[in-house]
Amino acid sequence: MRIPGLSGSRSDDDDAVRTDGGVRTNRVSRLRSISESDFVRSMPYWFVPFVIMGFFVYGGIGWNLLVSLTDYTGFGSADYGDLDFEMYVQALSSPDVIAASRNTFVLLVVFTAVCLVLGLALAIVLDRQIRFKEQIQTIYLLPMALSFVVTAQFWLWMYNYNSGVINIILDAVGIGRIQFIGDPRFVLGAVIFALIWQFSGYTMIVYLSGLQSIPQDQFEAAATDGASTVKIYWRVIIPQLKSASVSAAVVLMIFALKAFTFLYSMFGTYRPPNGSDILATLMVRQAFKFQEWSYAAAVATLLLLMALVVIGPYLYYQYQRGSL
């Protein structure tokens, strides 16, 4: 049943007010609702950057994927008429790619885990209101302000076999000098240690911010119940730092995957010493030294997949929390 006085046209039908339980949303109100939505009103601020980023980032990823399916080498042009997965088969069966993948994984896991544990320990110590807290905090955070180039050259000097401080100390205590850079058994560990030195201050700040956001009454309530300081942190405080841990871990993993700059600054070549080659250095070497463009593109795709494996769980975690 309709209210009398309304015509029978389609638009009027859309505008008609029904008496069978509700008001039918008309086309005009829908358009008005869409135009006034946060999505549309915010478009002037995000649409242009989104298009630019989509073209240069995702367009570049798509082009890299297309090149990896060709046999493009040298200074000629790629033949996009014959696409296959030959380069991926070669890459996945290559001992160099397998070794570089293993080194990348070890760098990723050890660097991230040690930075998180060390940063958390430092944050807990500083959260206890010790003397010279600000000075200690500045000292640990200072390496984070340095570039990869400065850090690489600093630790190259520290690891020097003849004049490096570390080898002088090891020689003085009777352990003997170690070829940190020249020995494949130590070179990856030396690189990871230098990166930990640079980024542990970052995780310290992340955890310290998380600790200081926890209400003080939780400490007092747990202490009143007779819990020791260790139990308070282990069972009450640290579980509340889950978000800080996830965010810091993702940032550290991304830096680990971008370690090419650090390795190139330390060794000055696309080919780092045996035992420290990672997927990023292998990709650049194949592309700009040997002009194996399609093979390098396949390695780059494998590196991208590894990065997605890292960032994927974080995005899912943020989605579960309603942050995406």
Automatic annotation (TrEMBL):
GO terms for cellular component: plasma membrane. The keyword Cytoplasm does not apply. The keyword Transport applies. One of its GO terms (biological process) is transmembrane transport. InterPro entries: ABC_transporter_permease, MetI-like, MetI-like_sf. Keywords: Cell membrane, Membrane, Transmembrane, Transmembrane helix, Transport. It is a multi-pass membrane protein. Belongs to the binding-protein-dependent transport system permease family. This is Sugar ABC transporter permease.
